[in-house]
Batch of 3 targets.
Target 1
Amino acid sequence: MQATATASPALLDYATSCTLPTPWAQFTLHAWVEPATGKEHLAMALGDLTTGEPVLARIHSECLTGDVMFSQRCDCGAQLEGALQRIAEEGRGILLYLRQEGRGIGLVNKIRAYRLQEAGADTVEANLQLGFHADARNYELCRPMLNQFGIQAVRLMTNNPRKIDALTRLGIEVAERVPLLVNRNVFNDSYLNTKQAKLGHMMTPLAEAIAARAEP
């Protein structure tokens, strides 16, 4: 008996959209549902994204403690605000808001990881001690979200090389990396240093990095 081919299930189902006034601009808010998990993912879009020119973009993973509760243990909330402000200043861009709290381990486990950090573990060690990968996020979700707008090339606001690699593997051109270095403070200095040392985050402004490579 010949097997019948079946279509692969969609990663995301588009749900709806609305206008969203913010302190920086009036964005259009778009929502998707991930059938496999029931999670709801969002995009905030501004301006004409269909011109074919690379779009200023940010892939932002949910951080309730940083985005909503103003935690200074990370730079997430400041990155979210900084990205939206830059998009507003240019009048064109998109922010993908992925519901992948704690680099994919969830809110409660992130708080457990914080407790381990208070006992001496760094942010990578804490995730590993809880039985998770250092970074368990899934960036394949970006493909259907960007497809919704016909976006094929981006100017990506990130310090994380994994995001660049992930988009490149998905066939999205990263025409430029735009550094997003904000809110280093006494509470997150070790956290940011660990991201640089163990996860390869690029925590040096581009001009300084280029100058350093040019030195004999």
Target 2
Amino acid sequence: MKPPIKTHSSQQLGIITSAIKSFSTSTCIRFIPRTTETAYVDIQSYNGCYSYVGRQGNAQTVSLNSNGCIYFGSVQHELIHVLGFDHEQCRSDRDQHIQVLLQNVISGMEYNFNKINTLNQGTPYDYSSVMHYGRLAFSKDNVSPTMVAVPNPKAVFGTAQQMSQNDINRINLLYCSK
């Protein structure tokens, strides 16, 4: 893999650290500093904000670009991907809550709205989830919505700045109830 495009500042590292620690206050998840572990999360500043969904083994890269990804909720979002959770608007039951307007999506980005069998853990659809994209996500013109809430098209979503209670509940149900 290429070297990071930029390193994180001490202020950015503080935000990342705070978001990492937030998991230990509301869940049983404990991210610990790597010593000799062969499977670990490797946070770097590559282009964009991204992570694979679920454990990939060995070094699992999480990109938190230092120009645009260093927000408390964004860090939580990517770490929730590491834990195996997908975007809220991809839930198999999303059509009861969100209408996806593929005609407004940038060509080639439609896959971001594929319905998949997600780890819902019996929790309700959550417009307040830190895993929910906003109504203009991947919009062709940044004006036409790519998603509209159902049945209330005025419902706000995709604005979370931290994990919702449902996000926390899903993590706890998957990892902490055993």
Target 3
Amino acid sequence: MLLILDDEHKEHLSFLANVDSAVLQEFCKIAVEFMRKGINQKVYLNAAQKLNEDADTVRHGVEGLMYLLTESARLMVSDLDFQDSIAVLGFSEDLRKELLALYTERRTEIRTILAEMAMDLPHYHNLEWRLDVELASRSLRHQTIPTVLMKLHTKDYGKDEVHTLQTDPVNLVHLTQALEGALAEVKTQHCRRIIRNINK
């Protein structure tokens, strides 16, 4: 899966295309450290002084690198796709190899950091279901009323919870379509842009 980088992000990362390998390694180290402990403005100022650059340029470079690494790790982008994704950034071949090596080396660590930062919401564990059909009653001898009974098992902070649900097939189909529509919407460019801005 290729990462789709917008123009602003490409512009922020373009600063790193002109640095040497040691500086790129240092930027990656700073980016991972910021993911773990939060942003430290003094680090930006020190790096800007050493590189004789504007502090905002350095900040954008580090934040752009943080986004590139976190998105790549979150989506488990393959090495080949990662190379193809950064090919448009104007990095030299040596810097691309260096960035790939850093991504490969730090991918597991970044995924661990992202997992630690994620909220532990109730999540799906198991689902049991049964279809009941009422064929007749005393007053109506020729009827068919299907009902779907579900037992949803979730986990929340290691604690198991069970929710019993009941619905008819028409509502179940509607619910399925609504959820599929929501999943499709999350994959659109507009939604990805909103999520990216929320995560900044």
